[in-house]
Amino acid sequence: MLRPLLFAAAAAATFPAMNLSPASAVDPYAVTDIWNRNFAADRPWHGPYYHIQYGQPTALVVPPTAHMRQTYSWGVSQNKMMPIHHQFGRNASSPGARPHGSFRPTPGWPSHTDQFGVYYVRGPW
Amino acid sequence: MKRLTARALANWSVAFTMLATAGVSSAQGYGSDGVIVRSEVVSDVAVGGETVVGSEGDASGDPAGYNTGVGRGYGRPDLFYNNYTQGYANATNAQMYVSPVPVPPNVGHTYGTYQPFYPEEYLYWHKNRFHNYYDNGRGTNRTRATYYAPPVRQAVSNIYWNYLRLPR
Asked: Is pTM beyond 0.90 here?
């Protein structure tokens, strides 16, 4: 009689540990999703630099469950952790690609990881 | 119970034959035995030459009904859709396909033809369902997909790549 109960308790204890899906009910009302949408609405997904191979700021697709990004920089500690607000969506957006020269190149002596022109954008749900 | 089922089947067959021959208006009234025949049009083809509101097949040269704006009970998902960066402050935008930047039109495009195999589905651990409507909405094919990473192997890989691996 005791053994099935023990098994059931063990299963119940291990099930939340195994259910590691990051999209689970940590945020049941999707408040961070709203925050991300609001932040992404009024600030660009890109920085002022272009990727040296493409001539455009380049979006690096990260999982939609990714929250934060890390930047490294020279100098007195400018290593920052920042949230990733932007996410790919269904709506076609304008403007499209800009002509060359609209963005700055990576400096010859880069001092910040944002200067490489690669910016994170979360993939769609 | 068995007799009831047989009667229900008989009612259904009568209803379908009426649908096929005389149109929709007489499809009601055969559901008196607990079988509910909806009064809506089941078929997508305008039967009997009459135009029914809510069905396809308007006389406006739009036989598939794609531009009628009439809501229907099933969706028409795109097979392949692109994803774009959103927001109003962007000086430029990126599309997800073709990655990472738009290519000139003479380069062409890559289309994924099977939605469960889209690359963005593999990005995280989730489940998804895909519905395909065929035969003008008469049939549905549902596909359940589970995108899963084995947790033990994931943990070992995490330990290796994030703690043990020499950074070089």
From this structure: no
